[in-house]
Amino acid sequence: VGAAALIGAGTGLGAGEALSPGADPAGGDAAPPRLRMAGSRARRGGLGRLQPGITGTPPAFAHVLALDLADGGGPDRARERAAAVLKAWSAAADRLHEEGPAAVADGAASADLRPASLAVTVGVGASLLAAAGREDARPDAMADLPEFASDALQEQWCGGDLLVQVGAEDPVVAAAAVQHLLARAREHTRVRWSVRGFRRTAAAAEDPAATPRNLMGQIDGTNNPAQGSSLLERTVQVQPGAGPDPMAGGSYVVVRRIRMLLEDWFATGVDHREQVIGRELATGAPLGQRGADAEVDLTAENADGSPAIGGHAHIRAASPQNNLGARMLRRGYSFDEGWRADGTRDAGLLFMAWQADPARGFVPVQQNLADSGDALNEYTRHEGSALFAVPPAPSGGGYIGRELLE
Ligand code: HEM
Fold it and tell me: Ligand 1 mean position to 108 CA, how many Å?
């Protein structure tokens, strides 16, 4: 099985697809094959498969929720609750991937709608393992994220025992699936935080294959590992180690709710905005180079000999070259909650970084962005933060996360 097939198996694109042939709404690299849910796919060499919703073209809408287990009853009860929820979600996710909105309760908002690439992804937080008395099963890669100098975290947007990401090309399909999944967990959980994210839709895209823009207007995602590449596979998927690893074939996601100071950002000139990132706004080309796809050359110079990409440009500080080769797959969503009570804008990026080990992905890069004075910091506020283990898709009668719990 090639890397493309292995990774593509996680796309969660439903059969009888809502997308027209060739439509690739969220852009990036080549459009992934229109695959059904990963549930029936073979495993390669014992390596589990990624859940849907991690690689492949991100659907235009995603609702991301963190839930906590209901209190009381001690570790045994917590473990029972967690197992009940994860079993229910695994079964529900399988059905949703196979049958689409038809699998949700009778009379749902999505009645008569097509699958719309519905994809459900489920994760487990370290706090769940602690509550369930399973600290000993906590993988090293699940170490708490360190504090970063630029953090402005608010408790209400941080942490969570469980993660659900529901992606779809249609917001009503996503909403109905969220309703369906949460009804199955109601007795055992309460929602801790939730963010509805969006990207450009296929209907609006001039070039559906082009990398989309974020709310700051930048083409965002250009220098991600390419879909289907072995770099992507190595970056995202936990590889088998010397001993048994319940996470082999799975991934880890860092979620950061990053508010953008959009008024301040758009009050500056285009030149300044380009310097902050180190790329042209119109084309996405690295400064001093041509075309968005040009390999970033951090040594490129202006006519006067000064660096084309400034010392504090975001792509300099975030570059693998300056972070011991650290790599991640950035697959975030814009959010827009209007205005806060104090009149400031509540919109930004629900940043999601997928990697096999956050210590070799998000953590060193964010440390460098915070400590080296990334010019973007002036226009962003990291208000929420969470880390989840996203176990491989279950096989042979198992359920998501079983190996972590039992
Ligand atoms: C690159 C925007 C936060 C890591 C970029 C690019 C843009 C961008 C426009 C250039 C195009 C691309 O290669 O995708 C933003 C915005 C952020 C944000 C608006 C916050 C609201 C972060 C965070 C991290 C990060 C928190 C990780 C800790 C990276 C990396 C690259 C990148 C690794 C590619 C660098 C390279 O190899 O060229 N970002 N970013 N970004 N960003 Fe961010």
Answer: 38
**Comparing C-alpha atoms, which of 163, 364, 155, 369 is closest to residue 255?**
163
Task: Tell whether ligand 1 has an atom less than 6 A from the beta carbon of residue 165.
Answer: no
pLDDT surpasses 70 at 41: no
Is 60's C-beta closer than 6 angstroms to any atom of ligand 1? no
pLDDT value at 253 more than 90:
yes
Q: Which two tokens stand for residue 113?
A: 């709608």
pLDDT class for 397, splitting at 50, 70, 90? confident
Give the model confidence (pLDDT) of 325-377 as tens digits: 999 999 999 999 999 999 999 999 999 999 999 999 999 999 999 999 999 99
387 in Cβ contact with 353 (< 8 Å) = no
Q: Give the C-alpha distances (Å, rounded to integers) separating 23 from 11, 27, 33, 72.
A: 15, 9, 11, 49
> What is the pTM assigned to this prediction?
0.91
**Considering only CA atoms, which of 240, 235, 188 is closest in space to residue 356?**
235
- Other beta carbons within 10 angstroms of residue 183's beta carbon come to 13
Alpha helices (runs of H) in 39-141, residue ranges in sequence order: 74-99, 126-131
> What ipTM was predicted for this assembly?
0.99
Please give the pLDDT value at position 288.
97
Q: Using alpha carbons, select from 90, 129, 99, 48 the residue that is nearest to residue 397.
A: 90
- Compute the mean pLDDT over every residue in the chain, rounded to the nearest whole number: 89
- The C-alpha atoms of residue 37 and residue 18 are separated, in whole angstroms, by 15
Set 24, 94, 220, 357: catalytic member: 220
What span, in angstroms and rounded, lies between the C-alpha atoms of 24 and 209? 5
Contacts of 162 (CB under 8 A, 6+ apart): 66, 67, 68, 69, 82, 85, 86, 122, 123, 124, 125, 128, 185, 189, 388
221 CB under 6 A from ligand 1?
A: yes
List the residue whose alpha carbon is closest to atom 10 of ligand 1: 220
User: Is residue 220 annotated as part of the catalytic site, yes or no?
Assistant: yes
Task: Tokens for 40, please give them.
Answer: 């029936």
Select from 58, 63, 36 the least CA-distant residue to 177.
Answer: 63
Where b means 16+ CB within 10 Å and e means fewer, 390-400 reads bbbbbeeebbb
